[in-house]
Design brief:
The chain is an alpha/beta fold. The chain has helices spanning 13-19, 22-25, 48-56, 65-71, 87-93, 136-139, 152-167, 169-176, 182-188, 204-211, 223-232, 273-284, 321-331, 376-380, and strands spanning 61-63, 78-83, 102-107, 194-198, 215-220, 240-242, 256-262, 285-298, 303-306, 314-317, 333-342, 349-358. The strands form three sheets. Strands 6-5-4-7-8-12-11 form a seven-stranded mixed beta sheet, sandwiched between helices.
């Protein structure tokens, strides 16, 4: 039955109840006779009772291209089930119905997962500028989707940190949720425009940046921490997302004026992953964009499990100052400033803070003859 329409009528549901009696007794399952009708392509055609229901939902599964187009107008996280059943949906997604009859799309607030849905691009047989095939890695879960391929050490480190920042999210917030050091505020003062906060926790950096007039959003892998952030800053509820800091590739290149990683990279699964993440951050920044990076240097130690907080284990990686300066320079960052601040409690521990800038142009864009490569096509013409 794959190659058929996926529309349903309200009158089809009494039939459904005859086969699934338990649905009648399930308070989580509701059927609304004011639901979307065939041809519904925008929110203005939805009944107010449905809009209220959508607003309250934590999870929305919308089926069908028409419903999906409509759902993109809802400013919240959505999981969208797209049945690849006909030639039109094949052309929209770039997928083959026989190989991939059903996909689930992780759709963030304000996102347009099928970019250019109404445009007819020059791509062979595709209707969208961005198709599901091109974004399959994102919708498959990115870094976490490769969990089965991780080493045993990486799996154990992830599980330990995930448990700490999920089960202990409230305790951590009570202790550090309002703590934003003067040093950090000074560095954040050098960032303007659209800013991405990696490992936002309960939202203090996003709240501070927004208060200062920046367009800030934050991601964190802890559902509980993001929930706290949304409750703490209800006017910014659609600025916080559950996402792994390893998945920054899922954001468009050159999208941000600034990126902030305030002590979030101290929990990388491997020390060697830092270079990869710095490269990802570099590509997300606009030319001249600023990256604030804060790490830990612990004398004589490079990585460890630590239990000093709440007597619970966390995995840490540590770096030396010269190590970061060299790596950042190799990637292409200009070092605007960097500081070392001793920890107030532990003598062997220091905070390392860096303000890095993506160069206004790269060496590749400025060849020896002094003519920028971006102008060459026009000169040749």
């Amino acid at each position: 039955m794959i190659r058929c329409g996926n529309d349903a009528r309200f009158t089809d549901f009494p039939d459904l109840f005859r086969h699934f009696e338990f649905l009648k007794r399930c308070s989580r399952f509701r059927v609304h006779d004011n639901g979307p009708k065939l041809g519904t392509v925008n929110l203005t055609k939805l009944h107010p009772s449905i809009l209220n229901l959508l607003e309250d939902c934590e999870f929305i599964d919308a089926r069908g291209a028409r419903n999906y187009e409509m759902m993109q107008g809802i400013n919240k996280n959505v999981f969208f089930g797209f049945m690849v059943c006909r030639e039109f949906s094949e052309a929209t997604t770039g997928l083959n119905a026989e190989d991939t009859p059903l996909i689930y799309i992780k759709h963030s607030s304000g996102e347009r997962s099928f970019s250019g849905f109404r445009k007819r691009t020059k791509k062979k047989s595709y209707f969208c500028e961005t198709t599901a095939r091109e974004r399959r890695r994102k919708w498959a879960g990115g870094h976490l989707a490769l969990f089965s391929t991780w080493s045993d050490d990486e799996k154990a480190r992830y599980k330990v940190n995930q448990a700490f920042y999920s089960k202990g999210a409230l305790d951590f917030h009570k202790k550090y949720g309002d703590l934003l050091e003067k040093e950090v505020k000074a560095f954040l003062g050098g960032i303007s425009g659209r800013v991405l906060v990696l490992g936002c926790g309960s939202g203090k950096e996003v709240g501070y940046l927004y208060q200062g007039g920046r367009d800030a959003i934050g991601i964190d892998f802890s559902v509980e921490a993001v929930h706290l952030a949304r409750n703490r800053y209800p006017h910014l509820w659609n600025r916080f997302f559950v996402e792994d800091i390893y998945n920054t590739r899922d954001f468009a290149e050159g999208l941000f004026d600034g990126v902030v990683a305030n002590a979030s990279f101290v929990h990388l699964l491997k020390r060697g992953d830092l270079g990869t993440l710095l490269e990802q951050v570099y590509s997300r920044l606009r030319l001249g964009g600023i990256f604030f990076l804060r790490l830990i240097d612990k004398e004589g130690i490079r990585e460890e499990y630590d239990t000093h907080l709440f007597n619970s284990r966390r995995w840490f990686v540590y770096y030396e100052e010269n190590e970061i300066l060299t790596l950042a320079g190799e990637i292409g960052f200009n070092i605007l400033s960097n500081t070392r601040t001793g920890h107030m409690q532990y003598r062997s521990v220091s905070w390392l803070s860096f303000l890095l800038q993506k160069a206004e142009y790269s060496n590749a864009e400025f060849p020896k003859n002094g003519v920028m490569s971006c102008l060459l096509p026009y000169i040749n013409e």
